[in-house]
Amino acid sequence: MLTFILCTCQLLSWMSTHVELSNGIKMPVLGLGTWLSKPEEVEDAVRNAIDVGYRLIDTAACYGNEAEIGKVLKEYFEEGKLKREDIFITTKLWCTHLHPNEIEAELRESLKKLQLDYVDLYLVHMPTAFSSDMSAQDHSVKVEDTWKGVEEAYKKGLARSIGVSNFSADQIHRIQKIASVPIHNNQVELHLYFPQFELQEVCNQYKISLTAYAPLGSPGRVNFNLVNWEKSPNPLENDVVLKLAQKYHKTPAQILLRHLIQRKIAVIPKSVNASRIKENFEVFDFSLTVEEINELNSVPRGKRLFKQEFLIGHPEDPMKDER
Ligand SMILES: NC(=O)c1ccc[n+]([C@@H]2O[C@H](COP(=O)([O-])OP(=O)(O)OC[C@H]3O[C@@H](n4cnc5c(N)ncnc54)[C@H](OP(=O)(O)O)[C@@H]3O)[C@@H](O)[C@H]2O)c1
Ligand SMILES: *[C@@H]1O[C@H](CO)[C@@H](O)[C@H](O)[C@H]1NC(C)=O
Ligand SMILES: *[C@@H]1O[C@H](CO)[C@@H](O)[C@H](O)[C@H]1NC(C)=O
């Protein structure tokens, strides 16, 4: 009897495809990332993703592809292939519009492009304000000010949940102290070599769900040549990952995603390749053991990939303590 109960619980947790935010909203634990997905590629990527079962699309005003994503969503709604309430759309407020009185208009701009009445999650993309052409840092806005503007948009029903991205633990504490609506989600760089255990603790304390960007180690980041990327090891080639891939007849990407999902972290792998989009979704039919999770958790840590050097000198630079 006990074995039966244990097995059922384990089975349910394997099948678990959503995380619940602190306001009761259910967010899929796996979504499609679209950073660096070109407007002409992203439409098919979103179609492929929805067709194989993805129900979360992650975009941002600054990715320049909201309109293409909106076009596909409209097509699927009109053809009756998808209902609005069955898909979770995340977009982000860019750092040129962090003044509280600009936020509603910015979100409405994103909604117009996405052809939606609301988004499911609206994230403040970065804690640091910049001038409208990004040429200068704007030191006049604090994260608390921005949060007040985001709360207003939430209260008007333009976003079903709200959160932050690239914020430090300290900035999260500051917001929680003044918030009338708490942070529901935090999206940060998180992968095998940058596991963010300490930040996860802080988020747990406030019931903030965590989303991993670059869950595969962002192998495509080199295509973004505004940044001088340091060479760093590729998690897809890690020995423990390769060993587990062989054991479970899975790919290294599937092992990396499954590991984070079992850590209760949402993942948004980016791909514009149909076979990888499908591959990245096939992670709900197996489960790593506790020992294997621990082995992956113990892999030596590496350095942060996204150092954001253009934030140096900004009073809200989230990484000032580690520079
Ligand atoms: N909040 C933020 O500041 C922030 C920053 C960065 C990213 N993000 C979000 O997080 C998403 C994911 O991060 P990311 O795009 O940097 O990195 P990622 O998802 O770790 O990696 C994406 C790269 O891996 C390749 N890839 C995808 N699936 C693969 C597979 N199964 N096997 C081998 N290679 C595979 C993709 O190429 P192909 O497309 O050719 O398959 C792409 O080059 C972004 O798209 C974006 O939505 C957010
Ligand atoms: C985080 O930092 C990365 C690297 O600078 C940047 O590309 C991304 O837009 C930022 N996103 C968030 C959520 O801060
Ligand atoms: C798409 O992904 C498959 C499987 O990983 C890979 O073999 C193929 O080369 C990729 N195609 C492109 C155009 O990158």
Show the helix and strand layout:
Elements: H1 2-15, E1 18-20, E2 26-28, E3 32-33, H2 39-52, E4 56-58, H3 66-78, E5 88-93, H4 103-114, E6 121-124, H5 143-155, E7 162-165, H6 169-178, E8 185-189, H7 197-205, E9 209-213, H8 239-248, H9 252-262, E10 266-267, H10 274-281, H11 290-297
Parallel strand pairs: 3-4, 4-5, 5-6, 6-7, 7-8, 8-9, 9-10
Antiparallel strand pairs: 1-2
Helix pairs in contact: 2-3, 2-10, 3-4, 8-9
This protein binds NADP nicotinamide-adenine-dinucleotide phosphate and 2-acetamido-2-deoxy-beta-D-glucopyranose (2 copies).
NADP nicotinamide-adenine-dinucleotide phosphate (NAP) binds near residues 216, 268 and 276.
What does this structure look like?
The chain has 323 residues and is an alpha/beta fold. The chain has a single domain, classed as NADP-dependent oxidoreductase domain (TIM Barrel, Alpha-Beta Barrel), CATH 3.20.20.100. The protein contains eleven helices and ten strands. The strands form two sheets. An eight-stranded parallel β-sheet has the order 3-4-5-6-7-8-9-10, with helices on one face. The longest helix is centred in the first third of the chain and has 14 residues. The mean pLDDT is 94. One 2-acetamido-2-deoxy-beta-D-glucopyranose binds next to loops. It comes from Acrobeloides nanus.
